[in-house]
């Protein structure tokens, strides 16, 4: 689940700084009078930086909060309460897709926003993104070793996230339309190819022998138990399915996310996409006979059975179908649009949450360590450790928000975020 997630929508890279709401439209200035020979020319006017989009950080906090709900439970609610069940069901699976979508938004922002980098800057950006991807994979593998040793059932998403970054590098120069086209193709073809490859392995086809041969020398599989085929095909968050969500975020990130009209279009488009995807799955099961043929779709979470291709119509969490990912992308578009709107109007009130979203990678890594600690200590442990274990949900939610807010105010970037970013800059230096 992880996730160094650069924020990269159309970073609002405009030819002039955006106007505040209600500000009058500036008139085109007349050409200035030429300076007299004995006068110095006026200093160049520096245009204001568009700044960081707090709404992207707020959306990232919602994603990390959803993952915390799945792993720790909803804070201040009984586990089996109706409210807790509703929050859990809405967060399950969609938080992962929201993270992947926001990764694409971040990639768009760091690669030029509405004006994609070209030439040497584009090569520098591609190099830095690649380094970040490799760094995320390294962090993910380290966490995977800790989680495995502790006996926790967490599947570390950071490693998958790093692979998403590497796969997105060839698309960084694309504008909004081409990135959207690539996203549509990836959403349409990726899950189907994933299903065919998994079925080939399950039935002893060519993929079975290829998998055995590949894993026999893949260092990541041999040393960590999480190799390239696990990340791309067989894992819980396979890149073949999730790359479409990343490219969708890249396409949205190429738009002017500071425009209220653009935000409204993103929200409406996301609502339409989610409604169509989820209704198609619902009708397939309850109006067209799949309930009697395959059984309740709710009983299959995660990888779908490969003996019947009709399972590709399910929308259940982590099934990696086109319908599940497309529906999640639609929800993510609505969340992003709403967060951009709210964060712009309530910046001070939401600052603790946006600070936590800006440190999502660090927060995720700490939550993985906390889950490993919980898996390691005995269930009947008493004292402070036992109390901490029993109240981990509330402690981690509150602690992460307060800690991130103070760190952001006193230090700046999160430790893992700063380390990954600085490593990318050091290994892929700009020559401009």
Class computed from helices, strands and strand pairing: mainly alpha
Low-confidence stretches: 1-50
Q: What is the percentage of strand-forming residues?
A: under 5%
Shape: globular
**Cα-atom radius of gyration:** 23 Å
Along the chain, the helix and strand elements come as HHHHHHHHHHHHHHHHHH
Number of helices: 18
What is the distance, rounded to the nearest whole angstrom, between the alpha carbons of the first and last residues? 35 Å
Name its key features.
mainly alpha, globular, disordered N terminus
Can you characterise this structure?
The chain is mostly helical and 432 residues long. The chain has 18 helices and no strands. The protein has helices at residues 54-72, 82-91, 94-110, 119-150, 158-168, 176-202, 206-215, 219-223, 228-234, 239-253, 260-286, 290-294, 322-345, 351-358, 360-376, 383-390, 392-410, 415-427. The longest helix is centred in the first third of the chain and has 32 residues, at 119-150. The two termini are 35 Å apart. Residues 1-50 have low confidence and may be disordered.
Quick description:
This protein is an all-alpha fold and 432 residues long. It is built from 18 helices and no strands. It has helices at residues 54-72, 82-91, 94-110, 119-150, 158-168, 176-202, 206-215, 219-223, 228-234, 239-253, 260-286, 290-294, 322-345, 351-358, 360-376, 383-390, 392-410, 415-427.
């Amino acid at each position: 689940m992880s996730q160094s997630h650069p924020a990269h929508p159309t970073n609002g890279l405009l030819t002039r700084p955006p106007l505040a709401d209600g500000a009058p439209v500036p008139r085109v200035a007349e050409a200035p009078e030429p300076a007299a020979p004995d006068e110095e020319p006026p200093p160049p006017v520096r245009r204001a930086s568009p700044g960081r989009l707090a709404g992207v950080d707020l959306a990232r906090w919602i994603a990390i909060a959803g993952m915390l709900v799945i792993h720790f439970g909803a804070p201040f609610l009984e586990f089996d309460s109706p409210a807790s069940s509703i929050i859990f069901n809405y967060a399950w699976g969609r938080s992962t897709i929201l993270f992947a979508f926001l990764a694409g938004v971040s990639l768009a922002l760091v690669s030029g926003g509405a004006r994609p980098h070209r030439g040497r800057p584009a090569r520098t950006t591609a190099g830095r993104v690649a380094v970040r991807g490799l760094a995320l994979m390294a962090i993910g593998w380290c966490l995977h070793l800790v989680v495995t040793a502790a006996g926790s059932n967490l599947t570390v998403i950071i490693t998958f996230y790093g692979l998403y970054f590497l796969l997105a590098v060839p698309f960084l120069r694309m504008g909004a339309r081409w990135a959207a086209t690539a996203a549509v193709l990836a959403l349409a073809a990726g899950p189907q190819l994933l299903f065919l490859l998994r079925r080939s392995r399950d039935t002893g086809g060519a993929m079975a022998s290829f998998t055995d041969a590949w894993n026999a020398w893949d260092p990541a599989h041999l040393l960590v138990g999480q190799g390239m085929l696990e990340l791309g095909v067989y894992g819980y968050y396979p890149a073949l399915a999730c790359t479409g969500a990343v490219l969708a975020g890249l396409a949205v990130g190429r738009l002017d996310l500071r425009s209220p009209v653009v935000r409204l279009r993103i929200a409406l488009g996301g609502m339409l996409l989610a409604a169509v995807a989820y209704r198609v799955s619902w009708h397939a099961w309850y109006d067209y006979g799949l309930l009697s043929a395959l059984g309740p779709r709710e009983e299959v979470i995660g990888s779908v059975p490969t003996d019947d291709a009709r399972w590709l119509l399910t929308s259940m969490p982590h099934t990696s179908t086109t319908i599940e990912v497309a529906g999640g992308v639609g929800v993510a578009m609505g969340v992003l649009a709403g967060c951009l709107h709210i964060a712009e109007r309530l910046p001070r009130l939401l600052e603790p949450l946006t600070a936590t979203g800006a440190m999502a990678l660090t927060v995720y890594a700490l939550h993985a360590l906390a889950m490993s600690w919980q898996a390691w200590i005995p269930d009947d442990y008493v004292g402070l450790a036992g109390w901490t274990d029993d109240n981990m949900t509330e402690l981690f939610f509150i602690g992460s928000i307060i800690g991130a807010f103070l760190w952001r105010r006193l230090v700046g970037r999160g430790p893992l975020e700063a380390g990954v970013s600085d490593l990318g800059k050091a290994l892929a230096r700009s020559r401009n």
